User: Fold this.
Amino acid sequence: MACSGITGQENEGNTAGNQQESTQGGDDAGSEENGGNGGENGGGGNGGENGGGNGEGTGRYDAPQLIDLGLPSGTQWAASDLGSTDPLVPGDSFFWGETEASTSSSYSNKYWEYDGEHGYAAKYSVNMRQGRLLDMKTVLEAGDDAAAVNLGDGWRTPDKEAWEELFENCDISQQFSASGDLEAYVYTSRINGKSITFHTNGGCYLGGSDNGHSRYMSSNLVAQGERAILNNGIYALDMGFSAYEVSGGNFRDSRMNIRPVFGGENKGIGLPLHVSENPGISGSTLTIGTSALFEEDFAQWNEYHYYVRLFDSPDRDDYCAETEVTRNGNASFTVSPGTTYYYLARFVAKKREGGYTYVWEGCSEVRSLTIGQ
Assistant:
């Protein structure tokens, strides 16, 4: 496809080419690839980015008891894991994006392929170089959410925001066994005084080995920072790390427990690069702005490239023109009246370390604009 009469150029004052940035902090994500670190089911769709609900569920699990902590969102939490009726006993373990429990010792699963050296995403990919595609999906769709599929309408695996709401509205205390060992954390609502208990031992597996402490899955993929490089970072509550924080230092090749929630909707994680919602139009010139929202905890990177890409159809693989810009720069294109255009920003970042070059290639959301006559 060709787009007649379209040209692209960077705005005056925005010199095209490499932009080098260097910050400190964060371990190399590549090294983790080899083993690093009775409730009412009252219906209601599982909306938002997750799409519609899932009817009655698979029937493999009974709906767990719900605890209403009076949270502002109205979200209610299951009293125990998916696959367990006792909050102190780990439930079934799942790979991120799979809806059936697993006992596999493989580092590969439904949407993640590990070839012994590198991992590749078959879905939920924020890095073209470590995936078979680039879909920039950062939250599980309903059909890939074990809680939604198995329990039915209204149920979901909690997203990062749901976990953070729990932390923000609860006092957290430790619970010890009769022998004096830490066995659980208890989250007591500051709103209505009700409590929910999370076990601390077992339930997380990497390569078939129990890590010895509990990790509870979220529905969100890591979309920014070091963990996004390999497409393998997911947010989870890691009891071996902290009971107060959902961390992005967890991996989709690990099996984890799921503590379902009921109500609310799962939301995606903000993408690292954005394009302007309202680009400028002056005559036949379209000016599109960009904004990079990279986290500050990057290890050293050798180079960045930023681009703005223009299309005359929603197909992201077949574009009309592309212009390289500086970080947060603008790109201008000559366009035709009466035409609908689609546009996005993309970036390529490279880091050379230990004889290996890490490449992160991602993009922004896709936006559209119709040029008036």
In short: The first strand starts at residue 7 and ends at 10.
